């Protein structure tokens, strides 16, 4: 199967901002990443000394620590279960055969000392930065979610971009001049905004960030109405 394009790995993230009419809007956004294995850790009280191997982590897998536990030993088989970072069981299987658990493909293999019920391993799933080089990011903020009028626009394209594209770092940052922010009416309760990512080559366009821009007259008013 062909590898996914960077834009196909983008998942919408909510981020709210505090801005003012008298300052430039300089804010970095969270990394645009795709789930990847961050390592495994054996439980300190484990009896068995087997090996946990993670073959792959699929896009959309929940970030955090997924726990694989030995649940039973019967009929010559050692049974296990996997749970996501919220403690929800996502799969059940057996030691020695591959298991697919909520995006993670893994195998727990016996070692010289067999596993015992209660043995456990943690799998860390962390974001790996997506190379967003060449993608164009556009922001529009509106007076309300149903409004047709646009209160503020910004883009990473053109000659004077107001959104910086970090390329292989997988991050973007706002760089909107205070002149533009001064023209934006005060709205402490927030302007709903969305940032979309567009691939000029394929024409694909997806949402990247959304949330509220809490806009006040001066920094001392930040937090009012938020």
**What is the general shape?**
elongated
Question: What is the name of the CATH topology of the largest domain?
Answer: Immunoglobulin-like
Structural class: mainly beta
The ordered H/E elements are: EEEEEEEEEEEEEEEHEE
Q: Give the CATH level 1 class of the largest domain.
A: Mainly Beta
Number of strands: 17
- Strand portion, in percent? over 45%
- CATH homology-level superfamily of the largest domain: Immunoglobulins
Low-pLDDT segments, ≥5 res: none
Mean pLDDT: 94
Summarize this structure as a short list of keywords or feature phrases.
five-stranded antiparallel sheet, mainly beta, 50% strand, six-stranded mixed sheet, Immunoglobulin-like
Short description:
With 226 residues, this protein is mostly beta strands. The chain is built from one helix and 17 strands. It has one helix at 178-183; strands at 13-14, 17-20, 25-28, 33-42, 51-57, 64-74, 77-83, 89-94, 99-101, 104-109, 120-129, 136-141, 152-155, 163-165, 172-176, 187-198, 205-216.
Structure commentary:
The longest helix is centred in the last third of the chain and has 6 residues, at 178-183. The model has no long low-confidence stretch (mean pLDDT 94). By secondary structure, the protein is mainly beta. It has 2 domains: 6-32 and 130-221, Immunoglobulin-like; 34-128, no CATH class. It is 3% helix and 50% strand. It has 1 helix and 17 strands. Strand 6 (64-74) and strand 7 form a beta hairpin. Strands 1, 2, 12, 13, 16 and 17 form a 6-stranded mixed beta sheet that branches.
């Amino acid at each position: 199967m062909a590898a996914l394009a960077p834009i196909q790995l983008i998942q919408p993230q909510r981020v709210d901002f505090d801005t003012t009419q008298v300052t430039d809007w300089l804010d970095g956004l969270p990394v645009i990443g795709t789930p990847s294995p961050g390592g495994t850790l054996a439980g300190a009280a484990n009896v068995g000394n087997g090996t946990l191997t993670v073959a792959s982590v699929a896009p959309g897998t929940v970030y955090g620590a997924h726990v694989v536990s030995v649940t039973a030993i019967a009929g010559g088989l050692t049974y296990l279960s996997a749970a996501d970072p919220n403690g929800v069981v996502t799969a059940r299987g057996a030691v020695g055969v591959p298991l697919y658990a909520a995006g993670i493909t893994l195998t727990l293999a016996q070692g010289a000392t067999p596993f015992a019920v209660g043995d456990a391993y943690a799998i860390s799933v962390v974001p790996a930065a997506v190379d967003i080089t060449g993608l164009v990011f556009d922001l529009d903020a509106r007076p309300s979610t149903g409004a047709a009028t646009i209160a503020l626009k910004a883009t990473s394209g053109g000659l004077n971009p107001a959104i910086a594209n970090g390329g292989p770092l997988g991050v973007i940052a706002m760089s909107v001049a205070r002149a533009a922010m001064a023209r934006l009416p005060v709205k402490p309760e927030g302007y709903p905004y969305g940032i979309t990512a567009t691939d000029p080559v394929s024409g694909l366009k997806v949402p990247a960030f959304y949330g509220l821009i809490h806009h006040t007259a001066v920094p001392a008013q930040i937090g009012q109405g938020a």
